[in-house]
Design a protein that fits this description.
With 176 residues, the protein is mainly α. It is 41% helix and 8% strand. It has four helices and four strands; from the N terminus they run H-E-E-H-H-E-E-H. Strands 1-2 form a two-stranded antiparallel ribbon. Strands 3-4 form a two-stranded antiparallel sheet. The N and C termini lie far apart (82 Å).
Amino acid sequence: MGIITKWKKWKKRRQEERWRLLQEERRKRIEAREERKRRERERERKKKEEREKRCPNCYQELVEKKHCKLCGWMPCVVKDDYNIECPASLNKKFYSWCESKSCGRYKNVEKERSRRISQKVKNEVWRRDNGRCVGCGSRVNLEYDHIIPFSKGGSNTARNIELLCENCNRSKHNKI
């Protein structure tokens, strides 16, 4: 066996070793990708379960997955493919949208809601908060703010309104 033959065998073994390492690395990358996908699916499943436990209007926990104590939201009841009972159609006062796409009321149902806060509620909130910002205690540039934002289904009742100064209100934006 000559030097050239030994060199060829060594080169072939080296190529086979490289090929084996490449295959193993590829397999690890595929396993890691599959693991990431599995974790992502698990996260999405948990998010979906969490969303089902919360009211889509005010994000409060639902009572037995049936209704929201704070805003009164209730999900559609699908009796069969053709018979859907949508609470949004029964009482427009409480429901801002319907979650069921099969229901004909997927868009905003509530057109009569107003952002205007009544003077009675303003007076009650002013007395309750002692004419001070709830956030920092300031007495200047005060504004009435929705605790649960109006855009997320918050009402204009005294329970949902607070006094905030301009800076605190701007920093809060539409967060709960």
